[in-house]
Amino acid sequence: MPVPTILWENNALRLIDQTLLPEEYIQIDCKDTPTVAEAIKSLRVRGAPAIGVSAAYGVVIAAQEAIASGKDFDTHVKDSIQTLSQTRPTAVNLFWALEIMEEVLNSTAGQLPEKRREVLLTKAHEIFEEDKRVCRKIGKNGATLLDQKATILTHCNAGGLATADYGTALAVVYAAVEAGKNVAVYADETRPLLQGSRLTAWELHQSGVDVTVICDNMAATVLRQKNIDCIVVGSDRIAANGDVANKIGTYGLAILAREHNVPFYVAAPLSTIDMNLSSGDAIPIEERNPDEVSHGMGRQTAPEGVKIYNPAFDVTPKHLVSAIITEQGVAKGNYEQTFKDWFAKT
Ligand code: MRU
After folding, report:
1. C-alpha distances in angstroms, 23 versus 13, 122, 199, 234, 328?
2. Residues 113 and 165 in one domain
3. Which atom number of ligand 1 is nearest to the Cα of residue 312?
4. What is the CATH number for 163?
5. Best residue for ligand 1 mutational test, from 138, 247, 264, 314 (most atoms within 8 Å of Cβ)
6. Which ligand 1 atom sits closest to the C-alpha of 168?
7. Residue ranges of the chain with pLDDT lower than 70?
8. Are residues 171 and 34 in the same domain?
9. Closest Cα partner for 9 from 184, 128, 152, 108?
10. What is the pLDDT of residue 297?
């Protein structure tokens, strides 16, 4: 990544305000838990792994608040975990990280608040550093699927901006480029919030990777005309059977990939796999404010008073997924068993 997505600085969480990119590059300091929660909810920080890491630091901030205010430590930190957990429902990494932090909170019961805050901070740093390592491994594993010359189509932003560093889907691109491969990327703009054109194109361009932005409705034509070798996307939650939730529009791309005989790859850390859900039907799908559709481009883009449907994610059934790339390796079919084997090893 050309710039750090998440930083812990002066006892605060420093984030790039991603709602302002690519026009403005502005970092914000989140010094209290409502600010962290607002940043996640309004997509100042977004992308499943980045949400998880930010929430972990949010718990440290809650600990600091308890110390500064003299509030009951456990009550305040637990209330804050609850607040953070209510920001976005789909990315399981949020709940994964909060659960880890709550375990640390519980395991330090009885110790001095300052000490507990220190242990929580150490754990948040671990989650952050682990995400960096995991993204590198995903990149390395995924790059083996690409030929020396590859043209990729991607959707939304599953890059360094969506993780602690380097990304998941874009990690595959970065790792392939670092391995000397010649990679070009088509980035779907990703309506309604344009994470593809605003963020994916921004970070790939900053990194010197060949990137072309297309509107979402151009994907079929690009697949027919442009010799796309594969589609690579990230994920917000993968069910135990291999069904994949990702940014709305991903499912349509998977269908297009099948029609055009193009492999459809999903790159994600194990922390995105939810073994508690047997299929994608159980994945909670966030519905966002209708204004994102009706006032999408800084102006009114739908008539006043019409009904709007704005699901932020969709579920791609496992049979349309050619492979799932993780830090543990690449699963091709029989996802349920492969996931079980991977988790047994960790
Ligand atoms: O609504 P967003 O921008 O948080 O959605 C992000 C995505 O859908 C990403 O593809 C996913 O979180 C994977 S990020 C490595």
Report:
1. 22, 35, 11, 24, 37
2. no
3. 1
4. 3.40.50.10470
5. 247
6. 15
7. 1-2
8. no
9. 128
10. 83
The torsion angles phi and psi of 213, rounded to 5 degrees, stand at -90, 135
Q: What is the pLDDT of residue 2?
A: 61
Mutation to probe ligand 1, out of 15, 44, 156, 170 (largest number of atoms < 8 A from CB): 156
Model pLDDT, residue 191:
97
DSSP state at residue 197? I
Ligand 1 closest atom vs CA 93: 12
281 is known as an active-site residue: no
State whether the beta carbon of 236 lies less than 6 angstroms from ligand 1: yes
Q: Hey, what amino acid is at 186?
A: Y
Same domain assignment for residues 119 and 152? no
Residues 298 and 221 placed together within one structural domain of the fold: yes
CA dist., res. 154 & res. 232, Å (int): 5
Neighbours of 312 (CB within 10 A): 22
Does any ligand 1 atom lie closer than 6 A to the CB of residue 168?
yes
Last residue of a domain, one of 88, 108, 135: 135
Domain that holds residue 77: 6-135
Residue 44 beta carbon below 6 angstroms from any ligand 1 atom: no
* Residue 11: alpha-carbon gap to chain centroid: 24
